[in-house]
Amino acid sequence: MSENTEAPVIPVIGGTGALGSGLARRWAAGGARVIIGSRDAGRAAEVAAKVAGEAGGTVEGMSNADAAQAADIVFLTIPFRNQSEYLTNLKGVLTPGQILVDCSVPLAATISGKATRTIGIWQGSAAQQAQEMVPEGVTVVSALHTVSAPGLSDLGHELDEDVPVCGDRKADKARVAGLISRIDGLRPVNAGALEMSRIVEQLTALMISVNIRYKTHAGLKFTNLPEGETF
Ligand SMILES: NC(=O)c1ccc[n+]([C@@H]2O[C@H](COP(=O)([O-])OP(=O)(O)OC[C@H]3O[C@@H](n4cnc5c(N)ncnc54)[C@H](OP(=O)(O)O)[C@@H]3O)[C@@H](O)[C@H]2O)c1
């Protein structure tokens, strides 16, 4: 596992999807080496080639299991209804010291309900459920819930928004923030402990409701934060 601050390796499990491939485009365009994970390594390679063709940079496709072992910080961008299945599959793959960045939103749409509603989770949030399921020594950080996939995917669209990052260890959040801030126009904001993710995950439903009404891809913005390092 390696992380080079000049050109970090960024694996995205479920990276063939809307959010994952959008993030991959932005990271690749910014010079990171991106690894797209999929249940099907062939599909991952196809999407990686497409993303590299559009964004430039180095993008590889791999199975989710291989992608999960490619760097210390691994992004998980899959539908909430499949989170438990993915984390069960990753149990023998993730190793202590790794950080799993969970982007899952428990939208009711995931079980045929409305996209402007969320479902209750016993643990409090999708991220806390993920923390219960990862192997001992793996830390879950939650982020990127309010960023729109279409906005990320359109490289001509100028981003200018904040990204709440939740987690129980400041140092881990700061490392994840470093990767998020490689995307021009995204400002990571320290939103507190992992349990705050229960509120941030709800914000996605709010953003969807606003986006439906204004037919746009609105972003979130906090005012009056100090300039510079927020972690
Ligand atoms: N879309 C957004 O704008 C957005 C924004 C913020 C947060 N989120 C959250 O980010 C997560 C990913 O969203 P998304 O829109 O990117 O999802 P998605 O495109 O529907 O799915 C992402 C990937 O998950 C895998 N997947 C899809 N359905 C599956 C199934 N039934 N069983 C197993 N694997 C399946 C697929 O990868 P393979 O088939 O290649 O394995 C797919 O490419 C969600 O929790 C969502 O709420 C989304």
> With helices defined by DSSP (H or I, 4 residues minimum), what is the helix count?
8
Q: What profile does the largest beta sheet have?
A: 6 strands, parallel
Mean pLDDT: 95
Basic shape: globular
Beta-strand content = 15-25%
Bound molecules: NADP nicotinamide-adenine-dinucleotide phosphate
The main sheet orders its strands as: 3-2-1-4-5-6
CATH topology assignment = Rossmann fold
Domains (count): 1
Distance between the termini: 24 Å
Keywords:
Rossmann fold, 231 residues, binds NADP nicotinamide-adenine-dinucleotide phosphate, globular, alpha/beta, 8 helices, two-stranded parallel ribbon, 18% strand
Please summarize what this structure is.
The protein contains eight helices and eight strands; from the N terminus they run βαβαβαβαβαβαβαβα.
Write up this protein.
The protein is of the alpha/beta class and 231 residues long. It has a single domain, classed as NAD(P)-binding Rossmann-like Domain (Rossmann fold, 3-Layer(aba) Sandwich), CATH 3.40.50.720. Helix content is 35%, strand content 18%. The chain is built from eight helices and eight strands. Helix 5 (126-133) links the parallel strand 5 (99-102) and strand 6. Residues 14, 16-20, 38-40, 43, 77-80, 82, 103-105, 107, 144-145, 147-149, 204 line the site of NADP nicotinamide-adenine-dinucleotide phosphate (NAP).
